[in-house]
């Protein structure tokens, strides 16, 4: 069985162990996430290099996503690494404490203006809402709080203000430095955190391009302000290549009860606007410490798959958990199970729209044929940029799209798209009248189609031309030589 929905796995100390990265890729990670909130540039460079070497060795297409920290407010570090807070105790957030001087009484802050932005009575949510503090008093650089919900608190955890509204802008100085790193690593995707407007995305893209980088832009939806205004949200989605439902911060800002509605809306709206969508955070959180997910986590992943997400993401489960490989394997298994639920081949997607471009019209026509003609088991798209497979897979179908591309960047980029299977193919090496036969034979050789199947093929008149797709072919696998 080919898995259609993709897995994004965050790298971290837990994936640095001997052989772990290789197992993670073999277990089915399609995209790796470098979280620039943690670790140092050398870690990110090394991990990206290792992933690319392993992907090449095992002939897998794996995309690299760099995730900017953004204006996330964080505590600094504890001298013992972590503390356990008791309900009712006093705990001080102190911007003047040394960065590794935290103790059971208080901890430093990486955002020194926080004391100016909170008021007495505000609730501060730490570690994606696991720890709740209430502001009792402010004394200069100190915020004195009472612990409402305690528990274990470790280094560098995030702080959110309940209801949202901390002032910091979406791109910090550290982010601009990390964009240079992202360009140097040549990431396939760059994720912008706490996006408030299309302008945040334009600024990030400009900085990336100025640094010689070329990547798809991921907008992380995690601010209450971004989802409160649906016109603004549409503008943000249109300015993105990929949308991420960043449930960690978003859930804290808007409350967990509102999250499911927003998640479903974002998945639907992103697909409708021809964009890719990732569902992220706490999908299999219990697997940080347990080799098996809970039933609720299994259903969470499965529901995101049934809603049409392109990818599901693992964060702490793979970056810092005890069972990183098991977490990817569990996701793979659960996704495959959810995908057995037959996907409708009836779609009203874009039925009443006019198309502006030939490649777009070919993509829509190919999907109409594939979904309605008996015996079609595969769609082949010869693609330079990956745009035709993207447009095709915005329509629900259970027929896989094989993206044959000579472009290594496209090959890794489409690894994120639901229902798209990248295949490296040097079309320039094949005589024009042999291309149909050669691509169909490749699928037959890999056991992905059978002799009696029908295949839909899309391509252009000339090789290596952007947006040149203008042809749909209907090919019977058995007759491909004829
Ligand atoms: N590279 C890393 N080094 C050390 N710890 C990490 C690393 N990546 C993740 N972790 C740990 O795993 C937890 C969850 O990972 P995740 O990537 O979701 O971080 P996060 O800080 O919540 O993310 P974000 O800043 O994007 O909201 C982190 O809070 C941290 O404790
Ligand atoms: C991924 C992320 O940043 C979040 O869920 O908040
Ligand atoms: K981040
Ligand atoms: Mg976040």
Automatic annotation (TrEMBL):
Keywords: ATP-binding, Glycolysis, Kinase, Magnesium, Metal-binding, Nucleotide-binding, Pyruvate, Transferase. InterPro entries: Pyr_Knase, Pyrv/PenolPyrv_kinase-like_dom, Pyrv_kinase-like_dom_sf, Pyrv_Knase-like_insert_dom_sf, Pyrv_Knase_AS, Pyrv_Knase_brl, Pyrv_Knase_C, Pyrv_Knase_C_sf. Pathway: Carbohydrate degradation; glycolysis; pyruvate from D-glyceraldehyde 3-phosphate: step 5/5. Residues 2-328 form the Pyruvate kinase barrel domain. Its cofactor is K(+). It catalyses: pyruvate + ATP = phosphoenolpyruvate + ADP + H(+). Its EC number is 2.7.1.40. One of its GO terms (molecular function) is pyruvate kinase activity. Residues 360-475 form the Pyruvate kinase C-terminal domain. SUPFAM superfamilies: Phosphoenolpyruvate/pyruvate domain (SSF51621), PK beta-barrel domain-like (SSF50800), PK C-terminal domain-like (SSF52935). The keyword ATP-binding applies. NCBIfam families: PRK05826.1, pyruv_kin. Belongs to the pyruvate kinase family. This is Pyruvate kinase. It comes from Zhongshania guokunii.
